[in-house]
Design goal:
single chain, 449 residues, mainly alpha, 16 helices
């Protein structure tokens, strides 16, 4: 059901809109968590390391799908808030055409470049073949990843965060069951993990696209909307390209960091692979709430209701900090038991690496969550230069410090310390940019009034 985010109490509306998004991302993360869990519990430590190692490369492809999601979502949100429904439909079809073209290019790149990438990040020989096998299967499922992201972006733009939640709840639960079936019963190894994800993502994508097709058909317009518009593609790209660059450069940075981690052996790799899944669950949750804040900001920007954007920032901070407290406590005090979910048996080296990572980064979730709330508003109001500046600051600091501190300490603890420093400085920048842009909007409103 479509929902107008420009009316009602902002805090209440934002909670109602973002909570299903949070639930959705929990189930979305279950896809990869299930892969790692099944690989670690039923195949072994090397399989867990292989899936975790491959995951950093899959994030590059996901970055492009996420960028298309955000580009389409923000522009459709602005058009929906302005009630320009004919252009809204054209924006959707334009985004789909562009995404199909981009996906085809990435599939070709993936087919020919995955092995060199695995070599580049110093993948150990004992996990190389499984890592490549997982990636080869993943590449053929890229169309499902892309069009599912486009569909969820449109749902969010129309104020509907519940429908994607229902799809993900069903498909993620199915993925866990199929993972276990393929690996435990059919003994397919890492290939079984990859094929389970492929099949479940495919079903979820098809259902989401069909639902969007029906939903858009019910929106009445006075004239037939054009299938493609260069002007709208340009607007979509102005949001999509920075979002793609943000996610892809973060992924490249993570790959570089993964290369440093790989130098400490398979035990540290396995511990990091398990811990980073728990960390990504939190960060992706904050990012998804930030995406919801982008939709809220974009609709209110389209409706020229600037005061609601400031209220959105305050409500967003309350929301993410409410999530920070339980996650921080869980990871500090119960991290060992959560890490054991991914391991067949307790490996001292892997466990220590994973616990140290969680101890160092989890207290700083308060900083990174505030950054992602501010980023959500910056993206929603199309302030992409400021958005990129804060993102690149975080990325560059984390990558450079990972190399420098690991070299100085001669252990993985130096790598883990790079996260809090990058997050804290980037958070200060994002909040500063948000306040500056909001002040500009307020001044414009005062002058016009």
């Amino acid at each position: 059901m479509n929902k107008d985010l420009t009316t009602g109490k902002p805090e209440t509306i934002l909670w109602q809109f973002c909570l299903p998004l949070f639930g959705s991302i929990i189930f979305q993360q279950l896809y990869n968590i299930a892969d790692s869990l099944v690989a670690g519990k039923f195949i072994g430590e090397n399989a867990l390391a292989a899936v975790g190692n491959s995951y950093e490369i899959t994030l590059i492809f996901i970055a492009f799908a996420f960028g298309c999601n955000m580009g389409c979502s923000v522009i459709v949100s602005q058009l929906f808030g302005a009630k320009e429904y004919c252009r809204l439909k054209t924006a959707v079809s334009t985004a789909c055409i562009f995404s199909a073209f981009l996906c085809a290019i990435l599939m070709l790149v993936g087919i020919f470049c995955c092995s060199p990438l695995l070599t580049f990040i110093h993948t150990p020989q004992e996990v190389f073949s499984d890592s490549k096998l997982y990636l080869d299967i993943y590449i053929w499922g890229l169309p499902f990843v892309f069009f599912y992201n486009i569909a969820t972006g449109i749902f969010s733009a129309l104020g509907d965060s519940k429908t994607p939640f229902y799809f993900l709840a069903a498909s993620s639960t199915s993925n866990i069951l199929v993972d276990i079936l393929f690996v435990k019963a059919f003994r397919m190894g890492v290939a079984g993990v990859a094929w389970a994800t492929f099949l479940c993502q495919g079903v979820s994508c098809i259902m989401a696209v069909l639902t969007i097709w029906i939903r858009l058909g019910k929106i009445q317009v006075q004239e037939k909307p054009p299938l493609f518009a260069w002007a709208l593609l340009k607007k979509i790209m102005l949001v999509a390209i920075p979002s793609i660059l943000q996610q892809s450069f973060i992924s490249v940075g993570n790959i570089l960091i993964q290369g440093v981690i790989n130098g400490f052996g398979s035990s540290v790799m396995a511990g990091y692979s398990a811990a980073v899944k728990l960390n990504n669950l939190v960060i992706t949750s904050f990012t998804t709430i930030g995406n919801g804040i982008s939709n809220f900001s974009a609709q209110n920007l389209g409706a020229r209701k600037y005061g609601r954007i400031k209220e959105c920032f305050r409500a967003g901070i309350k929301m993410v900090w409410c999530l920070c407290i339980p996650f921080c406590l869980l990871y500090i005090f119960l991290g060992k038991y959560l890490l054991l979910l991914f391991m067949e048996k307790e490996s001292a080296g892997a466990m220590m690496a994973g616990r140290q990572f969680l101890w160092v980064v989890s207290p700083f979730y308060f900083a990174v969550s505030a950054k992602l709330v501010a980023d959500g508003i910056l993206r929603g109001i199309s302030a992409m230069r400021q958005f990129m500046a804060a993102t690149f600051t975080d990325l560059v600091l984390r990558v450079v410090l990972a190399f420098v501190l690991s070299d100085q300490t001669q252990n993985a603890m130096g790598i883990w310390c790079a996260w809090p420093i990058g997050w804290t400085i980037a958070m200060a920048l994002s909040v500063f940019f948000y306040r500056k842009k909001y002040k500009q909007f307020t001044q414009k409103t005062t002058i016009k009034g």
